[in-house]
Amino acid sequence: MYAMSGLSGLTLACAAVSKCEPDPDDGEDALEPRAAIRKAHSVKVPRLYKTCAKVLQIHDEGRGALKNLIYGANHPNVKAMLALLTACVDHRHQLTALRVHLKWEEREPRLDPGLADVLLTELLWGKGRLPGQSRPVQTILTYEAAIRRFQLPPLTDSVVERKRLTRIRPRYVRINRLLAPDTGTVMRQIQADGFSLMSQVSLSQTYEQFLSRVRDLQPGQFILDYHIPDLLVFAPGSQFHDHPLYRAGVLLLQDKASCLPVHCLALPSGAVVLDACAAPGMKTSQVAASVWTVGTRNGPCVYAVERDRQRFHTLRKMLQNKGAAECVKIFNNDFLCLDPARFDDVEYIVLDPSCSGSGMLNRCEKVDLSDERLENLAKHQTRLLLHAGTFPQVRKISYSTCSIMDQENEGVVSAVLADPKFGANFELCPQVLPSWSRRGRGEERFKACLRSDPSEDLCNGFFVSVFQRKSEPNVEAPIIRARKRKSNSAPESRRRKMTEV
């Protein structure tokens, strides 16, 4: 769970900066005259920098993941916040070295270190300049000559490698069939906007040959994905945030690896699916687009569960904007607290729980891969997967993580299959996306699982496994249940009132 209480202060100024006195021995690095600084004191710091500094402070205190804090800050320019804070975290050890070199703790004791890091990041790796006449900005600028002369230490190897992989990763764009009139119309609109569709990969070509073609994509070119319908692959750096189809919800920016868990379930139209850890909602919308056909069901066919209140609101807003409100019922609840008997119509479960995030290329913070952290994550992931196996009518369960660590992947799969009850009822699906090259590690049975490698597959690092029930579940219960819903919906709504929001 992410603590969000500190966000209430995001609209307030960060620690006030006042009375920055110059050091007479500073020489050319000395501050501007006191009169200019006093005048700047009444000018406000731009909201973007104040908000970023507050988010950074909350993150440093261990009260939330950076990305979640950014989206929860309610700032109108999320893209700018994400770029600025990602760069700030990437260069944090360099910023610390710079502040130590300039002796800011002695010279500028009232300058908030977080705000200073944000402003320095903008100056060195962002716009290259600082707008406005506020006191913190003017204080930073008095040191600009010394800042630019300082020889920064090199970036860490992990940051360098992540930046390299990010530069070569293509832009994946999924067509949202909940809002798209049809795929052909969307493709024609994209081409009318100046993009060129490269010739489709023939059936005789391999996945490795497809990857070679993706690496050769030039700006303005795109290709249809080899595995996932409705997924388009554009050259790295392609921008869609201002595209009218993106703004309308017809195009979704979703990494290919994130599409794999739902795709590997091979969901039939009309199936009833539960997304156990649903926020922010990309997989939920993909599920809805896969199973929902207008007029085929009297009510929702997707249940989306999210325990965190803030993330629940993000999920609800996302699904409303993407045309999924009619077919998805959302619950602000812990999946472990759901009574499977009350969801006896669920046939498929998507389980993508919290993990270390060690496979994410755009991870905004240092990943904790300590043995204790991985052990705790694996225990919780195992509990969630075992609980998914208790739903009486579930036929298939996809378990996935955006982690590359064995403990959270093959280790969890091994643990649940060793459980007497789960192992007696479920097994790994043997033929999951056979054309995918990279499989699970270790024992031969793990070859049924998928792994994506950022350097090889040109997407985030991911693990995907699919479990299937060994024998057909009793189909009578959901049929009776559906009749009850149709004839008397009021008791049903009251029965779920404690969990549905």
From TrEMBL:
Signal peptide start-end: 1-22
Keyword list, A-Z: Methyltransferase, RNA-binding, S-adenosyl-L-methionine, Signal, Transferase
Active site: C402 (nucleophile)
Residue ranges occupied by any SAM-dependent MTase RsmB/NOP-type domain in the UniProt entry: 161-470
Keyword Transferase: yes
GO annotation, biological process: rRNA base methylation
RNA-binding listed as a keyword: yes
CDD domains recorded: AdoMet_MTases
Family: Belongs to the class I-like SAM-binding methyltransferase superfamily. RsmB/NOP family.
Protein name: SAM-dependent MTase RsmB/NOP-type domain-containing protein
Organism field: Tigriopus californicus (Marine copepod)
